[in-house]
Each structure stands twice: as structure tokens, then as C-alpha cells.
Design goal:
5 helices; mainly alpha
């Protein structure tokens, strides 16, 4: 086993890393569930009351509530992804680097 493989094995086995990985997984699944329910809600409204999303925003306008709802979903998906990436590349990456430093310090 190479030194890199040994280091990786120690990092993966470290309790702080495992705790961080669990937190990151819970965050990812939570955001996925939120997006799932947003999309299912949109499809549910289309299936149960399609006229609602076809309602014109203003009298004589070609813009409907469905357009706003679709744009809002896209923006929401972008924002929730942005938050996840910000946390994953910030807080969780810092935690990972801390564990790597601890493991490398223990090797010296």
C-alpha cells in the first residue's frame, strides 16, 4: 500500500471526517427532497388545476402565472444549488483539510 493510500485510509476512518461526511450527506438529501417536493407540487398543480397556472397576470397579457412559477422554480433550484456548493466548498472543505492536517501531523 502506498503512502497516499495509507493517508487516504486514515482520513476516511477519522471520526471528524466521518461526522462531516454524514452532515454533508444529510444536507444533500434534504436539499434533494426539497427540490423533489417543489417539482412534484408544480406537476400536481398542473394535473389538478391547469387553469390556475394559465391565469393571465394582467388583463390582456400573454404572461401567465405558470411562467412566473416556472421561472421561480428555476431560480430556486439555482439558489439551493448555490447554497450547497457554498457549504461544500467552504465549511465542509475546511473540515476535511483540518482532518488531513491532523492525520499528517500524527504521521510525523
Amino acid at each position: 500500500m502506498t503512502q497516499e493510500q495509507q493517508l487516504a485510509k486514515q482520513v476516511l476512518a477519522h471520526p471528524k471526517f466521518q461526522r462531516m461526511a454524514k452532515q454533508k450527506s444529510i444536507l444533500g438529501w434534504t436539499f434533494s427532497a426539497i427540490m423533489f417536493f417543489v417539482y412534484v407540487g408544480f406537476i400536481w398543480v398542473i394535473g389538478t388545476d391547469p387553469k390556475l397556472l394559465g391565469t393571465q397576470v394582467h388583463e390582456g397579457s400573454i404572461i401567465t402565472l405558470g411562467i412566473y412559477a416556472g421561472v421561480a422554480m428555476i431560480i430556486f433550484a439555482f439558489l439551493i444549488t448555490l447554497v450547497y456548493v457554498w457549504l461544500a466548498n467552504g465549511k465542509y472543505e475546511d473540515m476535511t483539510q483540518e482532518v488531513v492536517k491532523e492525520v499528517m501531523g500524527a504521521q510525523k
